[in-house]
Amino acid sequence: MHSSSVRYIPCGWAASPHKGKWQQRFGVLQAIQTFKKKVAEEPNDGANYLSILIDCFRSYNAEPTPYAYSFIIRYLFQRHMLSHLPPVLDHLEKAERFDVPQRIFVSVIRSFGRANRLHDAVDIFRRIPNFRCTPSVISLNALLSVLCKSKEGLVLVGDVLLKTPEMNIRLEASTFRILIKALCRNGKLNSAIEILRMMSLHECTPDAKLYSLVLCSLCKQAGSDQVVEFLEEMRNAGFLPNALEYNSVIDVLIREGKANDAYSFITLMRLEGKRPDITSYNSILDGFILANDFQKADELFDEMLLIGLFPNSATYNTYINGLCKQDNLEQSRQMITCMERAGCKPDIETFNALLAGYAKVGDMAKAKELMNEALDKGLQWNSHSYEILIDGFISKGEKEEARQLLMEMISKGFTPVSSTSNALT
Fold this sequence. Notes:
- It is a single chain.
- Helix 6 packs antiparallel against helix 7, helix 10 runs antiparallel to helix 11 and helix 14 packs antiparallel against helix 15.
- The chain has helices spanning about 10-15, 15-40, 50-60, 65-80, 85-95, 100-115, 120-125, 135-145, 150-165, 175-185, 190-200, 210-220, 225-235, 245-255, 260-270, 280-290, 295-305, 315-325, 330-340, 350-360, 365-375, 385-395, 400-410, 420-425.
- It is mainly alpha-helical.
- The longest helix is centred in the N-terminal third of the chain and has 25 residues, at about 15-40.
- Helices cover about 70% and strands about 0% of the residues.
- InterPro entries: PPR_rpt, TPR-like_helical_dom_sf, TPR_mt.
- Keywords: Repeat.
- It holds the Pfam family PPR_3.
- It comes from Musa acuminata subsp. malaccensis.
């Protein structure tokens, strides 16, 4: 017979370890809620957030959890109270006994990056083992992503990488991708290529995207010799460029006046089973015309038609410009008609090319007639149109006509180049 003052508790329930765990979890949840409430009540720089955290958990006979530390760290970053962060991290490192999850350090590193505290980001990364946590490529990549966003951070990357063997971190393809992207973005292309070649030493294989990234960066920033050399390296590695990448290489060669070399890539594309597009041909056509190699320009134009490519506005504008450079103005006008019949609408630059041809031979009457024709077709003169006409009239000594056009140009909101204004003063 049990005493009425003593509550009967089934022995199975009393001994159940699950009840203890449940009570512990409940206490932790209550402590966290109390902590959040107290923090919200004291949003000032003078509060001791670490003491508040410890007191809240102590009142529920519980220990602060990784989540609780994650919350307080995030809270301090969000409110820019970074002066409170060192004691929190020190307590987490030296007073706690649980293994700190790596995700907390990834978050801290990224937050330091957003606050432009790069040295602090490096420091916390190096301290990770002190928190009973094994750093991995995940935390390394988080740090490198932060450092690679600025030139100041890039300076620190080398030292970080030198320390990774001591931390038993193995570099992965994702690590190299971060580094190569950053180097390409900052114009350090030789270093990017060097790191790409180093990947195999770390049992990593570059993929097509990495080669493409470096090739495209070279096309924007390097000369044709280096571009073509890397293209060959890319092909030898088993990665054939796509049509867009070949077009980028062709553009580099055209910029340097190497139209014949550019055309050789048309042949190479065909050998690889790729069909050169109108963009490829337009670039090379422009290259031949810039080099005054009009015979090859004509042959290329005919080749385009033979293989079934349809010229677009850029094609016609380039070809008409070539005809005008040869003073073949009547054929240029006929090309505008052909263009319209093919369903390709001329734009103002089409007329500007022919306009420049008439201005070059001094036929300003035909030039004005042509520009009125453009207006009849619903096109509006642009600053280039006015410059061509004004320069043409100045060359013929008809300064009054030039002045009137200059006034009209200014009234329409266009700003004349200084040489045009000076010639009329």
